[in-house]
Amino acid sequence: MADMESLMRRLETVVSRLEGVAGGAGSGPAGGSPGAVSVYVEAYDELLSGPVAEYVSISQQIGGDVQTHAQMMKQAFTSQRQLLVLASSSQKPSDAALTTLLAPVSSVIQQVQAFREKNRASAFFNHLSAVSESVPALGWVAMAPKPGPYVKEMQDAAMFYTNRVLKDHKDKDKKHVDWVKAYLSIWTELQNYIKQHHTTGLSWSKTGPVASASSAAPACPAGVAPPPPGPPPPPIDLNQSPAGSDSNISRGALFASLNKGADITKGLKHVSDDQKTHKNPALKGQGGPVRSGPKPFSAPQPTAPAAVARNLPPVLELDGKKWRVENQVGAPNLLISDTELKQVVYAFKCTNSTLQVKGKINSITLDNCKKLGLVFDDVVGIVEVINCKDVKVQVMGKVPTVSINKTDGCHVYLSSTSLETEIVSAKSSEMNVLVPGEGGDYTEIPVPEQFKTVWDGKKLVTTASEIAG
What we know:
Blueprint: H1 2-22, H2 39-62, H3 64-89, H4 95-118, H5 125-134, H6 147-169, H7 174-197, H8 248-258, H9 303-311, E1 315-319, E2 322-326, E3 334-336, E4 344-348, E5 351-361, E6 363-367, E7 370-379, E8 382-386, E9 389-395, E10 401-405, E11 408-413, E12 422-426, E13 429-436, E14 442-446, E15 451-455, E16 460-464
Parallel strand pairs: 2-4, 3-5, 4-6, 5-7, 6-8, 7-9, 8-10, 9-11, 10-12, 11-13
Antiparallel strand pairs: 1-2, 13-14, 15-16
């Protein structure tokens, strides 16, 4: 049924475009009727009525937090379409005005990421994380000269979580598999769209007025209207700092400055010899010359978010089937003993602490932890270490797999009964596996971080490079 609806939307788009051509509409607003839009806005409408609409439709079938998240994403794409309509009929504005024009999309991006942070206990956490990690791809409009590769980078950031969705639902519910395919196809098609219409950055009109915030009024599409915005997203919790909330707008402004090349130094003030303290020792006691120009720009320091993060209450509780261990700082005796096979442990943002898990459980995840020691008996599934730094994991019994991702510094202590454990790593460094020997001593073996790949005439062959020492 969803496939049929998607097909009908695409057919309506084609018919509308053919009618526009037959009616003498030009390639942009300046060359056709008042309701006409540029070619690249029409191409963006196809993206909205195709992959985006399919993703929203499947998300509605799944419901819950996934549906809420999809409504936010739909609003983000709708806001970006309004910017494209403006760019197609206006000249590029100043950096300050561009920042204002990008604000609506940036705001929704932050709301999407904040929603994930406030719903970490959600049954659809992997779905929310996949979207939250990749939604900054919508900042491609501020990226030059390579917006396409930037979108690809953001798409890759979602792959870790989409793979987990596939793993959890592959043989259980096909809707979630279709959801992954539909969502990833959005970014794939967006890359194709950028390659065709905005190869080196957002294409602004060469004629027409210079774009301004007041001219960014919502525009109705020609032929096919974008999906109407859903219910307003939940308000942002100002007491939280969403993960990965680096402003795409700030990054775009930075890239714009770098692209000036040698002109970037034109604004610097020349300092004469009589103003240099190393040539005039008397100036040292006067605190230096008084600045006559504007004060240099200084990025605001993230002191408030850091203070809020330190003040979050520590958590050690059983929430359904999940043991939540969060925001523990300097806690050397954390213990989980009353466990069952169906339960999982999720440790988040724990620092300078030690966690011991007794009994046999399903899985353990360490996320954004620093200097954390984990000791456990038996795990029937997997132990995952994600975005951590300087952690130690000790196996007392057995575990099939230990997965290490985006982690700097991880020591895995194996027991004599867990020597067949598989260590899977990606984007990590300073990893060591310690194997028990006679007398209880451990032998430390580094995990390769560097690889060599050669073509043998038929296929690529990859081997680990030798590690000195």
